[in-house]
Amino acid sequence: MKVPDPADFSKMLVALNLLLKPRLYIMDGIMAMEGNGPRAGDPVAMNVLLFSSDPVALDAVACRMIDLNVDYVPTMKPGKEWGLGVYSEEEIELVGDPFESFVNKNFKVVRKPVKSVLSNGAVSFIKNLFTSRPYIIKEKCTKCGICVKSCPADPKALNWKNGSKELPPVHTYTRCIRCFCCQELCPEGAIHVRTPLPGRLIFRGV
Across residues 105-124, what is the average pLDDT? Predict the structure, then answer.
């Protein structure tokens, strides 16, 4: 909520690692997930555990396993420029089982650069017309309120209509920062992501 732009958020993550200075990074890739996790995605077995003292290299190796261009990951460039790690293949030493045995080029992932998010009024209006948004499938919603509690916006972008808990909560997209916390934490998988019609017409296939 405080750092909505992906580029700025990525720099914050790099800075946080430089501050904490962990000595070992571990990625559990025994079971990975395609799509929007941790509840609404599809599990995919990758059968790998990755360990490294370099978090940038660790992420870069994971990217290459799923055939994702490392330049599309916004933590890579600041991570290298600020001395957190490296991501080019030539600078990374791999040990253990053969790397090729873990490659899954059919892994479903968005293979595009992450887009910046601007927050001024005009841009926010356009964003709400074109960008993907969470929405509630009313038939699946049990009205537990977990999504409302998880919304970080103030005032909330997802709340009970007129304070009534007899109907599913409703989104106010002009406040929504597209963090998708509501979708991730819904225990019933009742919140999905869709692109508004203008966005579908302009960005076909997105």
Answer: 75
**Domain chopping of the chain, boundaries:** 6-102, 121-202
Give CA 171 to chain center in angstroms. Answer: 20
For position 171, what pLDDT does the model report?
Answer: 95
- Work out the percent of the chain whose per-residue pLDDT is above 70: 86
Long-range residue pairs from 140-146, CB within 8 A, at least 24 positions apart, any chain: 140/188, 140/189, 140/190, 141/168, 141/169, 141/188, 141/190, 142/188, 142/190, 143/167, 143/168, 143/169, 144/187, 144/188, 145/169, 146/185, 146/186, 146/187
pLDDT digits (tens, 9 = 90+) for 2-56: 787 889 999 999 999 999 999 999 999 999 999 766 666 789 999 999 999 999 9
* Tokens 């040990």, residue located: 95
DSSP 136-147: E-TTT-----HH
Q: Determine the Cα–Cα distance for residues 45 and 91; give it in Å rounded to an integer.
A: 28
Give the H or E element holding residue 170.
strand 170-171
Yes or no: domain 121-202 corresponds to CATH 3.40.50.2000: no
pLDDT number for residue 54: 98
Q: Is 125 helix (H, G, I), strand (E, B) or coil?
A: helix
- Looking at residue 205, what is its pLDDT? 47
Residue 6 pLDDT = 87
Q: What is the pTM of this model?
A: 0.73
